[in-house]
Amino acid sequence: MEKLIEILLGDIYIQSFIIGLIIAAFLSKLSRRTNLNEPPLVYYRFPVIGHTWSYLKDCDKLILESREKYGETFSLYVFGQIMTIVGKETTHEILRKDQDFSFREGFRMQIPMHLIFGHPRLVEENVKIVRDFVVGKLKHLISRLQKNIINAIDLHIGECVEPKVIRYPRKTLVDIIAIPVANIIVGEECYNNEDMLETFKTLTFSLIKLFRIPPILSFIHPWLHQQIITIPLRFGWNPISKHRKVILNCIKPVIEKRLNDKKRLGDAWVAPLDALQCYLNDPNVAPDFNPNNINYDYIADGIGRLIFASIATTSNGATRVLYDLVERKQQYWQELYQEAQEINKQCNGNELTSDDIARMVKLDSFVKESLRFTSPIVALPHKCISKSYYTFANGYQVPSGRIVSLNFRDTNNDEELQGKNPTEFYAYRHLERNSPATKLERNFLTFGGGKHACPGRALAINEIKMFVHKVLLKYDVRTDNKEIEAKKRYLGPFPVPVNVGLVFENR
After folding, report:
1. Residues 273/141, Cβ–Cβ less than 8 Å
2. Which residues pair with 101 in a beta bridge?
3. For a disulfide at 315, which of 174, 389, 439, 501, Cβ 3.0-4.6 Å?
4. Which one of the record's GO molecular function terms can you name (predicted)?
5. pLDDT tens digits for range 280-303
6. What is the DSSP string of 252-276?
7. Of 183-192, 208-217, 315-324, which range is least confident?
8. What local confidence, expressed as pLDDT, does residue 15 receive?
9. Do 55 and 493 meet the contact criterion of CB atoms below 8 Å apart?
10. How big is the chain by its Cα radius of gyration, in Å?
C-alpha cells in the first residue's frame, strides 16, 4: 500500500510540477511581498527557484553571507514561499510572543500531526503529563529509568570480553532508549511486550517516511503541496495505523485490570506511576470504572504523540554525545571516567540518585556542548498568527501567515554569548558559566525557549547522562578503523547523522 501511494504521488508530482513551472513563471513577478516594512529579501538569480538550491546545497554559506550583507533579520525565497530568518537579537522575541508566533502551527505545515493523531486537546494534555508527571516526579522515576537503561545496555551491547563491533550505533541507541521510555509511558505491565517495544522504536520513522517527498509543488503554492501529501490521510490511510493497533491491543487488558482493581480495592488501591495512568485519571477520558466507557483511541494517540516527541530526539542526542566522546577521547575520556568513578564510589556502587546525577557536572557540560555543537543551522519554524501583521522591536514587519525561523548559527557562533572560540568544541564551556544542560538561556536554543520550551528536557538529559555514565564505567570505546569526519555535513539546514561503527570492549 505504501509503495503504491509513493508511485501515485510520484506521477502526480511530475505532471503537476511541469504545469506548475509554467504557471509559476507567470506568477513569479508577483513577489508576494506586501506594503509592510518587511525584512530585506536576499537577492536571488533564478526566478521561481529563488534560494531553494542554495538552501539545500550549502545552507551554511547562504545564511552566513545573508547575515553579513543584510543584517540580523532577512528573508529567503524557498520552495515557493518567503521565509523570514531572525538572528540572536530577535530570536527570543519570537520565543516569548506566543500570542503572535506559534511553533505548533509552523511545525504543522511540515508534518500535519493533527491529521495523523487527531484529538487537538492531546497537545496540551501531553504537555501537562510531561510537566506534572515526568518532570514533577522525576526523582521517583530515576530508579526505574536507571534499572532499565542498565538492562537495555546489557541486552543490546552486553558483555564485551572480546571487542564487539556495533555497526549501526544510532539504531542500537534507539533500541536502548526505547526500553526506559516505554516503561514510564505505558508502565510495568506491558512495556516489555515485544510488539510494543517495536512500536516505540519505529513509530517515528514510519511517520516521517510519508513526508520525505520534497515540497516541489510549493513552487506553485504551499497549499497545493499540503493537499497532495495529505491525500492518503484524508482517504483513511495512516502511517501509524499498525502502531495504534499494537498500542490498543497492549493497553486494553492493562486498563481493564487497573479499573477493576481500583473498583475492588477502593482507597487501598495504589495507582501505578506512568503516563498511561495519567490519561486514566482524566475524567473526560475515563469517566467511571466501566472499561466500556474509556476513550481508548484518545489514549493510544496520546501515547503515539509521546513516542514521537521522545524517542528519536533522546536517542539522537545520546548517539551524538557518544560520538563526540570517542572523537575527542584523548582530551576528555579519562577526566570524565574519573568523575564517573568518583560518583560511583560515593554511592558505593548502588543506584544513582537524582543528586548523584546532578553531581555529574563535567559530563553535563559535555552533553550540553555536544547538543550545541550539532544544532541545525536554521530551525524552530514559527508561524505568525497575528491578525494582520507583526512588528518586531527592530521595526521590521511580517504579515500574518509568514514562517519565521531561528538562525541557530547566529547564536552559536557569537563570542559574546558563547565565550572564546565559539566555533570550537570546548566541553567545559557551560560548566565555567554554571549553566546546566536543562537551563534555558539566550545562548542555547536546542530546547527552544519561553513558555513552550521542551517540557521533557530534564528527562532527556538525565537519560543521556545515565547512559554515558554506565558506558564510561563499563567499556572502552573506539571507532571501527574509520575516523569520524571533523567537518560536519548538512542536508539543507540539518546535520547529516554520523554513521561510523563503534567497538566496545570491557574495561
Report:
1. yes
2. 384
3. 174
4. heme binding
5. 999 888 887 788 889 999 999 999
6. HHHHHHHHHHHHHHGGGPPPP-SHH
7. 208-217
8. 52
9. yes
10. 24
d(CA 239, CA 125): 23
Which amino acid makes up residue 292? N
pLDDT, tens digit, 9 for 90 and up, residues 42-77 = 999 988 899 999 999 999 999 999 999 999 999 999
3-class DSSP assignment, residue 396: coil
Number of domains making up the chain: 1
The Cα 250–Cα 244 span in angstroms is 10
Nearest to 496 by CA among 99, 42, 61, 56: 56
Kindly indicate the confidence band of residue 8, based on its pLDDT and cuts at 50, 70 and 90. Answer: very low
Cβ atoms 430, 368 nearer than 8 A? yes
Buried b / exposed e along 464-476 (16+ C-beta atoms within 10 A)? bbbbbbbbbebbb
Specify the 3-state DSSP secondary structure of 166. Answer: strand
* Burial per residue of 277-307, b for 16 or more beta-carbon CB atoms within 10 angstroms, e otherwise: bbbbebeebbeeeebeebbbebbbbbbbbbb
pLDDT at 264 over 50: yes
Tell me phi and psi for residue 256, to 5 degrees.
-60, -45
Q: Name residues whose C-beta falls within 8 Å of residue 151's C-beta, 6 or more positions apart in sequence.
A: 179
Q: How far is CA 308 from CA 105, 147, 374, 446, in A?
A: 17, 23, 20, 17
Q: Are 405 and 377 in contact (CB under 8 A)?
A: no
For residue 85, give the C-alpha cell: 530568518
CA distance 458 to 222: 36
CA atoms within 13 A on the CB side of 67: 22
Q: Are strands 494-495 and 403-407 parallel, antiparallel or unpaired?
A: unpaired
The annotated binding site is made up of 454
| Domain coverage including residue 461 | 2-506
Q: What integer is the mean pLDDT of 330-336? A: 96
Which CATH number covers residue 501? 1.10.630.10
Q: At what angle do helices 296-327 and 457-474 cross, to 10 degrees?
A: 50
Compute the distance between CA of residue 202 and CA of residue 195 in angstroms, rounded to an integer.
11
Q: What is the pTM of this model?
A: 0.90
Annotated binding site for heme: 454
Report the alpha-carbon distance of residue 62 to residue 42 in Å, rounded.
Answer: 10
CB 460 within 8 A of CB 317: yes
Strands (E) in 44-171, as ranges, are 73-78, 81-86, 101-102, 164-166
376, 85 Cβ separation under 8 angstroms: no
Q: Is residue 474 within 8 Å of residue 297, measured between CB atoms?
A: no
Q: What is the mean pLDDT of the chain?
A: 89
